[in-house]
Amino acid sequence: MQHGWMELEIASRETIATDIVALVLVDPNGDELPPFSAGSHVDVEIAPDLVRQYSLCNNPQDQDRYEIAVLKDPASRGGSVKLHETLHKGSRVRVSEPRNNFPLQSSDARAILVGGGIGVTPLLCMAERLAILNAPFDLHYCTRSLDRTAFRERIANAAYAPNVHFHFDDGAPEQLLDPAALFAGAEPGSHVYVCGPGGFIDWILAAAEQANVPKGQVHREYFTSVAVEPPAGGEAAFEIQIASTGAVYQVPPDKSVAAVLEENGHGVPISCEQGVCGTCITRLLSGEPDHRDMLALDGNAEFTPCCSRAFSPRLVLDL
Asked: What topology does CATH give the domain 238-317?
C-alpha cells in the first residue's frame, strides 16, 4: 500500500434508501485497515482528478473494513452521481487513510447527536462508540420521508436503538424536531454534534446559540462549503512568504494561495478545494488569515490555502 493512500475493493454495495447506496471497502488481500475514530472521514478517488470525502459510519472497532453511504445528488459537483453510476461490487478504488475533523469530545454529560439526511453517517459511528463506552446520548435523525431514511434496519437492530429519535418532514407535526425545546431541556455540559446540509446545520446552530449552549460544546461538520460573498470592493491581493526560504509570492484576487504555491514549487496536498476536508491545513507563523473554510479554524495558527485568504498584507507559512 502507498503511504497515505490504499487501493481497496468494494466488497458490497447496497441501496439502503431512495438514492442512497452503502459501500463496504476492504483490503483486497484481507489485511487490516488503518484504525479510525468516531467522526472520521476518508477521501475516495472516484475517477482521476475526482476526489470526494465520505464519513465512515461503521463501528470504530472494525479493523477489516470501512463503510460509507453516498447520496446521489444531481445538484452537487458531480462526484456522487459518478460514484453511483461507475462503482460497483468488485470495483477497486483509491482511498485515503482516515482523518478526523469532527471528533467526539470527552464529557460525562449526555451527547446530543443531530443528523440531517445523509449527514447521519458520522453520527452513527459516534453512536456505536458511545454505546460501547456506555455513555449517555441521544441521536435525532431528520429526513424528508421514510423512504429516504437510510440505515433503518441497522438502527432497529442496534443496542442503542432506544436512543434514536426519527423526525420526518412529511410526518405529523408533533414528531418534527424542535431544536429550541431540545436544547432548553439539555443537561448542563452536554455536547452537541450536528451534520447535514448547510441550511440544516445553520438552523441547529442558531437554536443552540439562542439556548445559550456554549460555543465550545457545539460541533459541526459540513459536506460542502457555504458560499462566501466577496468583499464589496472585490478580492484584495496579498503576499505569502515561505518561512524556510524567505521567498515571497503575490496572491492575486483571482487565484488561491494553493494555486500560487503550486506554481512556485511549494504544492500542498489538496482534495476538496472547499475548506471542508482539512487535507491542506498548513501552519501559519504570522499574519491575520481570512478563514473561509468550514472547519471552525480559529485564531492565527492554522490556514487552509485551498480557499482562505488574508486580512493582513502578508501571511508567513510554515513551509
From this structure: Ubiquitin-like (UB roll) (3.10.20)
